[in-house]
Amino acid sequence: MFVCWQTSIAIFMPMRNTYYITTPIYYINDVPHIGHAYTNIVSDVMARYMRLSGKDVKFLTGTDEHGQKIERAAKAANKNPQDFADDVSVVFRNLCDVLHISNDDFIRTTEDRHKITVRRIWEQLYQNGDIYLGKYSGWYAVRDEAFYDEGELVDGKAPTGALVEWVEEDSYFFALSKYTEKLLHLYSRNTEFIKPRHRYNEVVSFVRRGLKDIAISRTTFQWGIKVPNISHEGGVSHVIYVWLDALTNYLSAVDYYNADKKPDISELVIDGGLDSQAQSGAINVSGNLRRFWPADLHVVGKDILRFHAVYWPAFLMSADIELPKCIVAHGWWMNEGHKISKSLGNVIDPVALVNEFGIDPVRYFLLREMSFGQDGNFARQSLIARNNNELCNKLGNLVHRVLVFICNNTNAQVPHIQDIGEIYNSDLIQYAIATREKVKAFMQSLELTYALSSVFDLIDHANAYIDTSAPWKLKNLDINMMNVVLYVLVEAIRYIAILLIPFIPVSANKILDLLCVPQNERMLNKLESSCALSSYHSVVKNPEPLFKNIIIKDVT
Ligand code: MSP
């Protein structure tokens, strides 16, 4: 067995410089919307921040392609499910490019590396005595791909508002009830396992009410991974429940199938043989499991926390696999005060938004407007206001004023100063150093919005510093003092830009390009005096403004 979840902490925890972060994998029954974009962007912020801190990062996203929902969507589109999946999955992959998501893997649940892993996990649960055959009769919401008890229904619908159908079918069950105490023990031993705290409390009280065994196979449709070996027991063919299938993606992407034995490739014949990746030998690549598992962070929306914080750790305990370190749940976006839904016709297309406003205004708005972990409201006016007031007038103006002044007065060079110590003693640089520490602490505790707003506090301080120190006056009064002021400002801008890389990577890198900061100097550990730009270092002449003011058109 790969590793025991109870004892392995001592094996993997020390000296690990890797960071494995995942987004949920997206259902492909529909095209991407703002919720998908948000999950991707917050995960990207964490991934980029960890890289900035020098970590060896694996950042995974992908698509969830099996199950009844997809089977029905394919049928409605008059396509076979695999062709349908191929067509829509690529739309999600392209969204990553549009949003500047820095994922280094994209998994599809129809890939062989995943199918092999799911079957393997199934076998481990089975061997551990946690799977038994039974009959499920109850409610099922295809939209949520979730089973519901009668008592959970609200006005005849799932608590999420999804329509439910009565289902009676042969099913394999997973003995989740066996894990109630073990899960409670996990939560009490590791209070950081679920974040934020109010979500942790919700999960704990849910589990305290006691867990029931859950159905983990379906027999009334075909589009899924077949249950291995035992799939024809009783003459009925079972496919693995899509949530057990989907959650396992986090292991598939770190080559779990290759943990300690070669996969039984013959099994795949049932599903149509190996794909090209598997045939090319990529399937034998190992090392990723040791390098990246356990995952450091699963980022999920609040609606799917239960699957990640209850089912997933129980499956992993049963399979004797080390648990992820943390699951963080973010809130949901509303659109101008209304719940977002296709039937209301108010779904927000992230690609259209980026085309209209540009990537960084969209990323900035989403990250700043919704306090991470809470729900948020999408309003065009607020996006425009934040772009104009914060990106243009605060950040853009600061950079532009300083660089234009340097171009015009110090020959586009960092000014000459006698003593870097004097710079580092200035209030503004002390504030920049304090901001660096605040950002570190906020990012560590996953308070992304606070981290971002603290950089903007620094921007406010820098703008105030220009106004009070008035370099345009010093030019005629005290040239040395003017140089000191400009040096302080350049250094503050360097701090600001590096700290902003995770949030608005395009603009942050543009600022660093203007300052001619080499790529390998764009790291968190370069934020200190010994890495300050030297006197006479050239910056780019005649810089263009970074952001455009958005004019609100009259709607008459
Ligand atoms: N396929 C499952 C996840 C499996 S992970 C092993 C799924 N997919 S989803 O496409 O429906 O949702 C993906 C993510 O989008 C979830 O984290 C969900 O919370 C998020 N969002 C969907 N609508 C949202 C909003 N309106 N606002 C914010 N995020 C929301 O669930």
A few lines on this structure:
This protein is an alpha/beta fold and 556 residues long.
What characteristics describe this protein?
556 residues, alpha/beta, six-stranded parallel β-sheet, 13% strand, elongated
3D structure, described in words:
The chain is of the alpha/beta class. The chain is built from 21 helices and 15 strands. Strands 3-2-1-11-12-7 form a six-stranded parallel beta sheet, sandwiched between helices. A four-stranded antiparallel beta sheet has the order 5-4-6-8, covered by helices on one side. Helix 14 (359-369) crosses helix 15 (380-409), helix 18 packs antiparallel against helix 20 (479-500) and helix 20 (479-500) packs antiparallel against helix 21. The longest helix has 30 residues, at 380-409. It is elongated, with a radius of gyration of 26 Å. Bound molecules: 5'-O-[(L-methionyl)-sulphamoyl]adenosine. 5'-O-[(L-methionyl)-sulphamoyl]adenosine binds at residues 24-27, 35-36, 38-39, 64, 246-247, 249, 300-301, 303-304, 332-333, 340.
What characteristic shape results from the CA principal axes? Answer: elongated
Quote the distance from N terminus to C terminus. 68 Å
How many strands, which pairing sense, and closed or not: the largest β-sheet? 6 strands, parallel
Strand content: 5-15%
Task: Give the bound compounds.
Answer: 5'-O-[(L-methionyl)-sulphamoyl]adenosine
Topology:
Layout: H1 9-12, E1 18-27, H2 34-52, E2 56-64, H3 68-76, H4 81-98, E3 105-108, H5 112-127, E4 131-141, E5 146-148, E6 165-174, H6 180-189, E7 194-195, H7 197-208, E8 214-215, E9 217-218, E10 239-240, H8 242-247, H9 249-252, H10 276-279, H11 288-292, E11 297-301, H12 305-319, E12 327-330, E13 333-335, E14 338-339, H13 350-357, H14 359-369, E15 376-378, H15 380-409, H16 420-424, H17 427-444, H18 448-469, H19 471-477, H20 479-500, H21 505-514
Parallel strand pairs: 1-2, 1-11, 2-3, 7-12, 11-12, 13-15
Antiparallel strand pairs: 4-5, 4-6, 6-8, 9-10, 13-14
Residues 24-27, 35-36, 38-39, 64, 246-247, 249, 300-301, 303-304, 332-333, 340 line the site of 5'-O-[(L-methionyl)-sulphamoyl]adenosine (MSP).
